[in-house]
Specification:
By secondary structure, the chain is of the alpha/beta class. It folds into two domains: 180 residues, Rossmann fold, CATH 3.40.50; 81 residues, UDP-galactose 4-epimerase, domain 1 (Alpha-Beta Complex), CATH 3.90.25. 39% of the residues lie in helices and 19% in strands. The chain has eleven helices and 13 strands. It has a seven-stranded parallel beta sheet, sandwiched between helices. A two-stranded parallel sheet has the order 6-13. Strands 8-10 form a two-stranded parallel sheet. Helix 1 crosses helix 7, helix 3 packs across helix 4 and helix 8 packs parallel to helix 11. The longest helix has 20 residues.
Length: 291
């Protein structure tokens, strides 16, 4: 299989690594030459794409793809990949599968209630509005061109090098408390499981929630990570007193519980890390966190 990835970021790299182990070839874009050189050393055919403009070599690589994974933030109007390479993707003769990495943020706020893939999106913030707009554009593209498009709505992604253990080690971990606030998470290896299962079972227009089994208060996750390290947890900080970026504050402005039942029943995925406990325990055993 030839996979082309627009935006070979954190999650997409884990997907690529898994598929290469199964014999796939990978071509992908990144924004900088330095990153392209770093990833070329892993055997990937790298191209540059900063969100605008069409490159002929990139277009030729897209034409060779059997599958396309899109992991690039949406634009203000048209999705940047569709805007620059939509015609090339539509003409790709072997393309049978397109995956778009989105976010559970498109569901908006549900006051702690459960959502699943049948829940109508009602995004609130600008970032979520753009994500949902891009989702609709990709679904319309799939219908118009007869290719199976899949939307993956991801909860908060964590994994090696990106987790509360690392935050404890570098001193950035905080226990921010907002009563009633819960978040789902998803270990990056479980992201890989779902994407790979979808590649084996394409369904045009499919939407999948990628989330763990236990939506939990964020302060509990930090406390558990601290316990794994044999450390006292950071002090609790009331949400009203926390110094947060606008983006972080927007996350706390919504709370919902995300169902992952569909990836289990339709794709047969069994999460390796069904809660943050299993995930953090494995990451600690692998060496993440304070020495």
């Amino acid at each position: 299989m030839n996979l082309f990835v627009f935006g070979l970021g954190y999650s997409a790299r884990f997907v690529a690594r898994s598929l290469v182990a199964g014999g796939a070839t990978i071509a992908a874009t990144v924004r900088s030459s330095a990153k392209a050189d770093e990833l070329s050393a892993l055997g990937y055919a790298m191209h540059l794409f900063a969100g605008t403009g069409r490159d002929e070599a990139t277009a030729r690589a897209v034409a060779e793809a059997d599958a396309l994974l899109v992991s690039i933030p949406p634009g203000a109007a048209q999705d940047p990949v569709l805007e620059s390479y939509g015609d090339d993707i539509a003409k790709a003769p072997k393309l049978r599968w397109i995956g778009y990495l989105s976010t559970v943020g498109v569901y908006g706020d549900h006051a702690g209630g459960w959502v699943d893939e049948t829940t109508p999106p009602r995004p609130r913030g600008e970032r979520s509005l753009r994500r949902h707009q891009a989702e609709l554009q990709w679904l319309a593209f799939g219908r118009a061109n007869g290719v199976a498009v899949h939307l993956f709505r991801l909860a908060g992604i964590y994994g090696p090098g990106r987790n509360q253990l690392v935050q404890l080690a570098d001193g950035t971990a905080r226990r921010i408390v907002k009563p009633g606030q819960v978040f789902n998470r998803i270990h990056v290896e479980d992201v890989v499981q779902v994407v790979v299962a979808s590649l084996a079972h394409p369904r045009a227009g499919a939407i999948y929630n990628l989330a763990d089994d236990e939506p939990a208060p964020p302060q509990d996750v930090v406390a558990y990570a601290a316990a794994l390290c044999g450390r006292a947890p950071p002090p609790e900080i009331p949400f009203e007193e926390a110094a947060l970026s606008a983006m972080s504050r927007s996350f706390f402005g919504e709370t919902k519980r995300v169902s992952n039942r569909l990836v289990k029943t339709e794709l047969g995925v069994r999460l390796r890390y069904p809660t943050y406990r299993e995930g953090l325990m494995a990451l600690r055993a692998a060496g993440d966190g304070p020495a």
